[in-house]
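Input set for joint prediction.
Command: fold jointly, output tokens.
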Amino acid sequence: MAASTTPHPPAALPVVETFHSLQGEGFHAGRSAFFIRLAGCTVGCSWCDTKHSWPERSHPRLPLAELSAQVGEARRMGAGFVVITGGEPLHHDLAPLCRQLAVQGLPLHLETSGVDPLRGQFDWITLSPKRHSPPRPELLQRCDELKVIVHHEDDLAFAEAMALQAGSGGPSPRLLLQPGWGSRTGERLALEYVRRHPHWRLSLQCHKWLAIR
Ligand SMILES: C[S@@+](CC[C@H](N)C(=O)[O-])C[C@H]1O[C@@H](n2cnc3c(N)ncnc32)[C@H](O)[C@@H]1O
Ligand SMILES: Nc1nc2[nH]cc(C(=O)O)c2c(=O)[nH]1
Ligand code: SF4
Ligand SMILES: [Mg+2]
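tokens >
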């Protein structure tokens, strides 16, 4: 008897949105980038600006080949790199996505809270650790950029603790403080801290100031 020929379903991931804009935050702010926002997050930050991305099942699953084609088109339109964000992208195994996107030849950047194991090959990792759900040591070791969100004085102590762990046993990441959007206290604390501690840099979400995606 012939072996079963049931085809595998195409590899796919749940996607909230894709768009070509400027990287709005962090070390690469101001550069042309193509964004893939994956659905699903269980980290539950009270101040999250992307809560609509949390329920994975509310968003369609897109084949990886379709995402790769979109990246190819974005490259032709001038995107300099791809940002995989979410939701929490590392809730998913990103290795197949990274393999599929690699053929397009754009650097792959990741935005993550670091609560899951790292699966996938990235050129730049932005780790935004959360006080209530700290990151895995492997992400602290591997990240290129540590971007801590500031609402409260305690976030500054947390930022220094994370920087200390991130810097141990390898190259130190770039250190950024990003005020919580709309938090006057966060703005004041981050600004004043950076002014007094020159190894930290301020990250403003400039896409929000410009009211673009
Ligand atoms: C929406 S998250 C998605 C990626 C991943 N879940 C994470 O938290 O890093 C993208 C970035 O936005 C930051 N962020 C989310 N809500 C914010 C807010 N209200 N103000 C400032 N930054 C915020 C996160 O800390 C993270 O650096
Ligand atoms: N322009 C723009 N830059 C970004 N950098 C990180 C973003 C994110 O939501 O992860 C983001 C975003 O949503 N828009
Ligand atoms: S980890 Fe990221 S996506 Fe998830 S709730 Fe926190 S900021 Fe939002
Ligand atoms: Mg955002």
